[in-house]
């Protein structure tokens, strides 16, 4: 897996964007757990954030696309309101350990 960042860079109820090579991702922490998605709205294929590292709505309880306001569940990326309702963000496999947050970008890179 690829090292993304230290755990402290994604505090509770906050989000953070990353560029790993050609991959644009973001991470969100909710109730202690980190969720990582591709930074791509399923509606128009554009990045989601309205300002750097701002991927959440004003209540910090949903992920929001800045372009047309689609709202996504933090836990599974499902769009629950907006023009792409029923579609989902692309989940990036991740795990967290004492060193920080790790992601898997390619299936065949697992275990490296
Ligand atoms: S591009 Fe995200 S809601 Fe339209």
From TrEMBL:
InterPro entries: Rieske_2Fe-2S, Rieske_2Fe-2S_sf. Residues 2-103 form the Rieske domain. Keywords: 2Fe-2S, Dioxygenase, Iron, Iron-sulfur, Metal-binding, Oxidoreductase. One of its GO terms (molecular function) is 2 iron, 2 sulfur cluster binding. This is Ferredoxin subunit of nitrite reductase or a ring-hydroxylating dioxygenase. It comes from Pseudomonas congelans.
């Amino acid at each position: 897996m690829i090292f993304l960042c230290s755990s402290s860079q994604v505090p509770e109820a906050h989000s953070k964007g990353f560029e790993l090579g050609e991959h644009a991702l973001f991470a969100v922490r909710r109730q202690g757990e980190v969720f990582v998605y591709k930074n791509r709205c399923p509606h128009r294929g554009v990045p989601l954030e309205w300002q750097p590292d701002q991927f959440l709505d004003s209540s910090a309880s949903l992920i929001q696309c800045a372009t047309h306001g689609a709202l996504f569940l933090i836990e599974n990326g499902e769009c629950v309101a907006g023009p792409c309702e029923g579609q989902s963000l692309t989940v990036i496999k991740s795990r967290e350990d004492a060193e920080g947050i790790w992601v898997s970008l390619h299936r065949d890179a697992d275990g490296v």
